[in-house]
Amino acid sequence: MPAGGTFDAWRVAARRAISHGIAPDHLDWTGGGGLFANRPLPPDDGPRQVLVPQGFVQLATSVIWHSEPARFALLYQALWRLDRHEGSPLSQADPLGRRLHLLAKNVGRDIHKMHAFVRFREVPNDGPRRRFAAWFEPEHNTLEPGSAFFAKRFADMDWMIATPRLTARFENGKLTFGPPAPRPDLPDDASEGLWATYFANIFNPARVKLDAMRSEMPKKYWKNLPETRLIPEMLKDAEARVQRMHAAGASQVRTGAAAISTRYRAAMPQLPNVSDTLPETLDQARTGAMACRKCPLCEAATQTVWGIGSDQAALMIVGEQPGDQEDLVGRPFVGPAGQLLSAVMMAADIGADKVWLTNAVKHFKFTPQRKQRLHVTPDRTEIDKCRWWLGLELAFIRPKVTLALGATAAFALTGNDAPLSGRRGKVEQGFHEEPVLISWHPAYILRLTDPVVQNRARDELTEDLRAAFGLAQGPKAFG
Ligand code: URA
Predict the structure, then answer these.
(1) How far apart are the CA of 465 and the centre of ligand 1, in A?
(2) 108 falls in which pLDDT band (50, 70, 90)?
(3) Domains present along the chain, CATH in parentheses
(4) Cα dihedral angle (398, 404, 405, 409), rounded to 10 degrees?
(5) How far is the CA of 421 from the centre of ligand 1 (A)?
(6) Which of ligand 1's atoms lies nearest the C-alpha of 357?
(7) Which of 146, 170, 270, 285 is geometrically suited to a Cys-Cys bond with 114, CB 3.0 to 4.6 A?
(8) What residues flank ligand 1, with Cβ below 6 Å?
(9) DSSP 164-223
């Protein structure tokens, strides 16, 4: 089989073989192209057209990328049996079907890992487009099926991903595959320091489960990830850090804070414990967040408020934390600040289905006063703890641009805690190495008492939303 276009090549060979009625045990796929008694396959398809269920094509387009040498032969066996109506070779109840589904699952996981762990570095370029390169070592032949994702996300720049078996190149909007290139000599990236700090901050030594970590993020990926280079050092210090955390004790939950939540919480389903492993999907991340106990805020809040919107969004909007109403409803931005945000989004002509809307902190922090729960700004520790979840939302959704509403979101995303007055409307580099546009928080705008100042701030937020959305859609590189 060729290094690229493998599925199409296999399909042509398999169709030809089956239309001539060549049985699986007369075919030898180990040379790659489907040889018959050391002779090539017949030059053309036979007289018979072969029809297969859609499920087979789907399964085959995944299995084909596995590194298992028998994959071509196994697929041909399934095709042969389908053609002859021999049992259900695609069913999990059939040993062949089970094996094929397992191979497909491994491929899916490998593609997912590539999307999560490829790290691009900028390389010099004479032309107008920025150029990036990455080195990656997938377990299977997943560069080809996995690259469309990067082509969509990084359509406005040129890049290459080199792997030991194949190289993907994206130049002037065209994706091509070629023979393996030598491992590129990649420059150090200035943003590695940010990643490393980020990773060190979210690293919780009390929760380290090395086996789980190794199985979810095999060590071979660690060496190409700037953040994970810190792991050995951090592990050395882990025990001491746990002791220090115990000595410091958890912050106390304020008395009376729980009253209103207890009522609502009672109606909530029992949630599983937070998983220590890296989630594989956005949905798994959400399930983990729903059971989060990383900081004391979960004690008084009703529930975790996870993000909403399109998981394909090129624009993510990040607020501070859920408010009173969001805490009860379980959705971000449904209260007064949310109404202002909706109005501004409408004015900017941005549908809610075009963005991912979330918060830097996923639990409502408040202080009870009579029957009310008054908003309290989350502190640094809470923001740092919750960055784990925000980081996962960013990692799975991979927005091209993120709009930070207010100082908490701006700090959570960039680590910069300077006042917003000089930063609003400007783009900063996020921890996740993507642009973050800074704007006002709608609740801040609502609190402004001078109508002229308030209108101006509202206009600025609208302008920032438009700019962020434009950047997220636009083809132009930006820096
Ligand atoms: N304020 C926020 O920052 N987020 C919400 O979800 C609601 C109000």
Answers:
(1) 16
(2) very high
(3) 6-114 (no CATH), 118-178 (no CATH), 192-248 (no CATH), 257-473 (3.40.470.10)
(4) 100
(5) 20
(6) 6
(7) 146
(8) 319-323, 326, 332-333, 335, 337-338, 359, 443
(9) SS-EEEEETTEEEEESPPPPP-PPP-TTHHHHHHHHHHH--GGG--HHHHHHHS-HHHHT
